[in-house]
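Recap for those who missed Tuesday's class. We walked through two folding examples back to back. For each one, the amino acid string is listed first and its predicted structure tokens come directly after. Nothing is annotated here on purpose, so try labeling regions yourself before you check the end of the notes.
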Amino acid sequence: MASRTARPTDPPLRQRNALAPGILGAAALVAGMALIGGEFAIVISFIVAILALIIAWFAVQAGQWWWAVVMVAIAVVWNPVVPFAFAAPVWLTVHIVGAAAFLAAGAMISTVRNEPAR
């Protein structure tokens, strides 16, 4: 049998399901830096916690459990039920680190794409 070579029209062999939630989570954290200590900070907490749990699920599905641990930790820090009371400089630092973690996880979590039956 002849080996199949990749053509420009072929779909990629891997898919990154966590990329969109990773970008959205990072954007929410960057935008949330302006809301630290305000009344709408709880909205950012809901968004970040939910997106972190979604990415954690994609990490488990991809077999990359270490990202699931990171994302669950982010969900705990930004949980809206029992919020942490950090000082503003600490929250700014944690927002930046969290945004970097969202982007890194979104870019690195990938699964093998199943080829459709022909």
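Example two. Treat it independently of the first, because the proteins are unrelated.
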Amino acid sequence: MSLANDVQEVARVIDSLEEFGAANGIPAEQSLRFGLALDELITNIISYGLAGRSDGIITLAIEHGGGVLRAELADNGPPFDPLAADAAPPVGDIETREVGGLGLTLVKSFMDRLDYRRADGFNRLTMEMKVKAA
């Protein structure tokens, strides 16, 4: 699917993922975790990587097979490897710590495999989650 450079697209992705999960027998909890990871990544692409750009391109492909839920998320923003980014949880109590820092930690904790590459002017992140029997 192709996504507009608009955070409202996240709702469409989540709805599509829920339908896909139900049709493929993926447990709701796993669909939810996968959806939360996609929400974080897509929101970051739109808010940071493609902010203010009218030529932003985002694509998402999702598949299920061999006991694995897999997605490839691609964007034409500046090179950014989320796997190399600091994903240490923020330090301090909620009132005094800086905003942010939990999203990539969440994504990394939910996925069984993540792979980033830059190809043909696009960031390409492949995500995999092993699907447990319902």
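Answers for example two:
The mean pLDDT is 91.
The radius of gyration is 15 Å.
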